[in-house]
Amino acid sequence: MTIVSIVSYPFLPAKVGGQKGIAIFNKYLAARAKLICITVQSNDPSLADGYELRNILSNSASRYFNLFYFFTIRKILKQTGATHLVLEHPYYGWLGCLLKWFTGIKLIVHSHNMEGLRFKTVGKWWWKLLWWYERFTHRQANYNFFIHDADRQYAVHHFRLNPARCITVTYGIEWDRPPSAEEQEQARHDLRSTHNIAPQETILLFNGAFNYKPNLDALRRIIDIVNPILQKQSLSYRIIVCGRDIPPDILNGRYPNMIITGFVSDISLYFKGADVFINPVVEGGGIKTKLVEALGYNLNAVSTENGAIGVDASLCNGKLLLTADDDWTGFAGAILRAAGIKANTPPEYFRHFYWGNTIEKVVKFIQ
């Protein structure tokens, strides 16, 4: 197979979950097929791991309406003998459909959310227009990839897709077993030393990209609701918050039992060294990549039901505790329970979320 992928936005360097999802998907796919990625000028070709990156698309928003890209990409498809064309998200649906109709290439739409529904949850009035466009694009595709089973089932029913053309391609992790006890203990020691955390204090972690409203809203809930409830409990704890674009009023604020670090260069240290990952996200779509990674690093986790979509608790050996959205008393109670869980993330979890296994399934599906 020779695959051409169109990624219409910045993703290299990969800094946040969605960008990492595409970068790692491409990396593992390129190990099984020849891959050429057509993308915007702002992406760094030197970071394309095992595949060719062509910076053809403009950084301007007008790129989504530039009809001349059809001729440029059609030429690339012919020159390379491409067999499959992957659209990351449905935004270039019109272009993908034209290329399919005029070249006969197999079209794959790789969905990371139900985009129309995601914009509905954040109050965009035009979400229904995007929903119809998204539906049209998926219906024209030869194959449809969805980030989790709930999205796939929704699309089959509401977009009226052929189930045989649809597959779940989950966000994954690049390691196939939890870190060793020694690694975790060393990371915990380093965190306690760096942030002056006492040995008896349970380390709670939340991280994300805070220019994304659902993550920022979740952070405000931790500050305004969850942390005050925890202060009334018997647990001795610290909450560490890591991530980009934390507003200055929060980054410079002082909150009991909380450490606001902002961006950290090595987030794996925090995942390995923390005790419980907390995920009070109640909006947005897709799979919460930070939760997948946290469980892969052997953390116990507490999440709202919305925040855990795409992560099956039955794969987690009791390490993932779920509460109803907006039940913050229950959420705080689950944190207390999670602090005492001693289980490890099981092999079943890694079989499901390891990228090597996911790409093997993808290749067999499209072949």
Describe the structure using short key phrases.
alpha/beta; Rossmann fold; 7-stranded parallel beta sheet; 14 helices; 18% strand; elongated
What does it look like?
The protein is α/β, with parallel strands linked by helices. The chain has two domains: 186 residues, Rossmann fold, CATH 3.40.50.2000; 166 residues, Rossmann fold, CATH 3.40.50. Helix content is 41%, strand content 18%. It has 14 helices and 13 strands. The strands form two sheets. The chain has a seven-stranded parallel beta sheet, sandwiched between helices. A six-stranded parallel beta sheet has the order 10-9-8-11-12-13, sandwiched between helices. Strand 6, helix 6 and strand 7 form a beta-alpha-beta unit. Helix 2 crosses helix 3. The chain is elongated and about 65 Å long.
